Amino acid sequence: MFDPHDPLGIDDLLTDEDRAVRDTVRQWAADRVLPHIAQWYESGELPVVRELARELGAIGALGMQLSGYGCAGASAVQYGLACLELEAADSGIRSLVSVQGSLAMYAIHRFGSEEQKQRWLPAMAAGETIGCFGLTEPDHGSDPAGMRTYAKRDAGGDWVLTGRKMWITNGSVAGVAVVWAQTDGGIRGFVVPTDRPGLSAPEIRHKWSLRASVTSELVLDEVRLPADAVLPEATGLRGPLSCLSHARYGIVWGSMGAARTSFETALDYARTREQFGKPIGAFQLTQAKLADMAVELHKGILLAHHLGRRMDAGTLRPEQVSFGKLNNVREAIEICRTARTVLGANGISLEYPVMRHATNLESVLTYEGTVEMHQLVLGKALTGLDAFR
Quick one: 77 and 157 in the same domain? Predict the structure, then answer.
């Protein structure tokens, strides 16, 4: 039988364990996020972020793609399915998990010392400690090599960090920040407890996107750290960029969650909303919209599955992640916009999730690499010519 919600039979690609992970995250989101998300979005806050983090830790969703230190050791596909279900609820919830697991925890797990891993990762996996990731600066987003945040050594061997980071998810609620800074020896990463003197994280307000998400600045005013605060295995931009590639992979999946919710909302609406004596889904133009949305949605999910299998096999390249991020977020926004037209004026109401997802995706389109950056990554891979500068 043809399933309008899975027209290509993609579920057949999943193992029983994959489905169990997906269903666990989907049920958690239905119970804990969906009843409240419109209110959180309208008020522009996520008041229970610490409580949600602990619950996400309890179901194994934080750093789930990592092994050891209390992490679930899930497959890349299972992590992707979790991202899809979280973003089907709201992009801000998926961002909480992505920054925690794919940026802050991944950086410590991949580049940290054993002491750093033992100190931070178990508490972060449990959601007892929230992490953030400081790379972007007010004047340096797509070009992180130009960052001005600087770490210098003093005579006693300590590091002293000074600078500002911008658009930091989880910043004001984080207990630990992974901060990237210029040093005399190149760009290095630092594990920074957020209670250190000189560090503050003023929250960014007045956002029209990702409103149910904590977004902050990080201000570092001569923050003193011990010599062992540096991530020993990361030198240069390769460290933070590998973290970003890992986070972008989650976005490839997550964006399809936002698109799925918007498509299914439009499909249900088209079946029940009547005009000119019959449901609007019976009109050719509406069916054309639904068909086009379904095609792009499930092509995107197939692409996400393909990249997930490659990641699990150890063959996924950063250029392929750029391919997925560029395509899936761009198509997800178009699906949301088309779904909004099916709902007509109701599409702009928070009684329906479509406009919330559309505005959230405007941020997702930009962060973890803008459209232009991913186009240039692919352009260089296709031509062998570097057009970044």
Answer: no
